Amino acid sequence: MTDAALAHIVEGIVPFRVALNRSFRGVTSREGLLIRGPSGWGEFAPFDDYDDAGSARWLDAALEAAYGQWPAPMRDRIATNAIVPATDPDSAVECTLHAVSLGMTTIKIKVGDDDEISRVRAVRQCLDSELGEGIGRIRLDANGAWDSDRAISVLRRLADIDIEYVEQPCASWDELALVRDRTGIPIAVDEGIRRANRVDVAAIRMHADVAIIKPMPLGGVAASLALAAELDMPVVVSGAMDTSVGLCTALALAAALPALDRACGLGTGTLLSTDVVAHSSSPHGGYLPVSRRAPDAQSLDHARAQCDRPGWWMQRLRDAWTAGSGDRWSSAVLDAHS
Questions:
Q1: pLDDT recorded at residue 27
Q2: What is the pTM of this model?
């Protein structure tokens, strides 16, 4: 039964590779598989360091998009933050100016390298110049790169800058608690949620102020909604460096949450130099519309031609299917093709 269902899925698969306009966390492109089903297109693109069990959750999200149903939206547009990667201060200013031109007033800045202090200050100065002093919001994201001593030192050096929150400054719960206690800056958790084999709801509630919910590595919209309800705390929805097709999953989640009062991390379309659609999803007036997008033929053909390891990706999909997605989706896939 599972083999027959997988055969149907494979029939609707297109490998892809799209380029970024600058290096982002050491990555210069995104690649994976697009899956076409009766509900639309899903995207399977786990980063290379995800194991089979983690990749199975990404596949669940892709199959939910292709074969499942998303909940009805409660809003038709989502406020979006921009992302400034770990780059030099001048480039950070360029990114900020572009974000402001698209109406985004919340900037998430990657930190954890030698230029972090000067980058944050350059962005703050740019926001104040363009929007007025103190209007733009700044978030920091260390991706767990700091230890507690480094986190406390950096954040104290930035004490004159109003920081909305710092995302995953350290890897461990004890260090997160120490950083929050010593700096007073709110803590957001990302890796502690999306990389956990079992999400520790009690620890998140105890040590964090904001939960970063990325539906792709969490198994899709329904699984993410259930987690957000269980956490019962402020949530910021974020994409996972998706194409404009894959980003629709995060938009669907953000649209379905009962409450959403913070800008979400959905501005990654501005980091793409190529895409599977002719025009990448980009905010207007600081918002992204809630929509469902399909690839266009020309862009998809180009992205497919750029993928140099389609066999590797197909094997990865089979491994993820075997690791759990097959048990969860075989019946739905077979029913859809009956």
A1: 84
A2: 0.96
